[in-house]
Amino acid sequence: MSFARWLGKWRSRAFLDRAASDSTILLAGMGRSGTTWAADLINYDHSYRVMFEPFNPQRVKKALPFLNIQYMNPHAQDADKSASARAILSGRLRHAAVDLDNRGLVFRRRLIKEVRCNLMLGWLKSLQPEMSVVLLVRHPLSVARSLIRLGWEDPGPDGDFQVMLRQPELLRDFPVIERALRGIDGEDRLQRLVFQWCVFHLVPLAHFSEGGLTVLFYEELLVDPQQALGPLFASLDRSFERDRLAQSLPIPSRTNYLNPGHDPRATDRLKGWQREFTAAQIQRTYEILALFGMDQVYPAERPTGFPPPDMGPPDRAVAR
E strands, the chain, where? Predict the structure, then answer.
């Protein structure tokens, strides 16, 4: 065993997780939406045990019952998946990669950062009702820009696009997905990514239509992170030190592969996609959002998406 691997395994066991369910945050978002940076801001004082993407079945044995992008109806009953999810959410899971960034010895707060569980957030909340669930939302073209630049969009049979469409429960619960599918060009990479973005956000907004979900806009974090995080911290009955939080703002996350060392608040993060795509591509993006009834999340006339509209899902978006 290499020293690095040994060190990772040692770190994953060299602390005590004493966080209760009501001291646990599940921070979810689509890949490349800024969840790692948002987690760093929430954990600016290092008081949380951060569990980095524990629902990755390709890396974490405990997550093997789940697809890479798994849909679960909030009322679904599945003994194997429930047992695995409870082990992860409760903090019983220890894993070198999941616990890579933790340096403390005793944690009384837990932050689970994930990009694979948007489609089962309601179900996870049903397993641990006291847990706080946070959804980070970033403009679809900003997300697509990052994914395309990194070459992370997989059009093959095991890519997110196809995995979602092979889940009959998802298509049954959200018939709008198949209707919208007929309105896009499935061979077009950008259209596939925008389609995925819509599904990734439609489902949790519908499952939490009665409340229980905190929505953060990536763009608001860039412009005024203290204001954006204020309500979340208040809901957790947690104050924050403005000076210490401010010191964390310019520090890029370890998943900032495109511009390491680059201040994540730079203007390029907010509007860079407007230079990346053609007017026709941008127009097509808003047309796809409209197919899902989600064109008010990021209206064309307010492309940065804030101040945010009422985040309750439009009736036409979740019509059965």
Answer: 16-17, 24-28, 48-52, 106-107, 109-114, 132-137, 213-217
Residues 6+ apart with CB under 8 A from 125: 26, 74, 131, 133, 208, 212
- The whole-number pLDDT of residue 316 equals 30
**Within 13 Å of residue 290, how many CA atoms lie on the same side as its CB?**
9
Distance CA 248, CA 262 (A): 13
pLDDT tens for each residue of 216-256:
999 998 888 888 888 888 888 887 777 777 777 666 655 55
What span, in angstroms and rounded, lies between the C-alpha atoms of 246 and 138? 21
Contacts by residues 175-181 (CB-CB < 8 Å, ≥ 24 positions apart)? 175/319, 175/320, 176/202, 176/291, 176/292, 176/293, 176/316, 176/317, 176/318, 176/319, 177/202, 179/291, 180/288, 180/291, 180/292
pLDDT tens digit string along 80-137? 999 999 999 999 999 999 998 787 889 999 999 999 999 999 999 999 999 999 999 9
Instruction: Give the whole-angstrom CA distance, residue 123 versus residue 120.
Output: 5
Spell out the residues 6+ positions from residue 305 whose beta carbon is closer than 8 angstroms to its own: 137, 139, 217, 219, 297, 298, 299
pLDDT in tens, 25-43: 999 999 999 999 999 999 9
Per DSSP, the three-state class of 252 is: coil
Q: Is 314 left (phi over 0), alpha (psi -120 to 50) or beta?
A: beta
What is the residue type of 21? S
Phi and psi at residue 161, in whole multiples of 5°?
-60, -50
Domains, the chain, with CATH or none: 3-317 (3.40.50.300)
Query: Amino acid letter at 316?
Result: R
Average pLDDT over all residues of the chain = 86
Residues in CB range of 290: below 8 A, 6 or more apart? none
Residues 227/147, Cβ–Cβ less than 8 Å: no
Percent of the chain with pLDDT over 70: 83
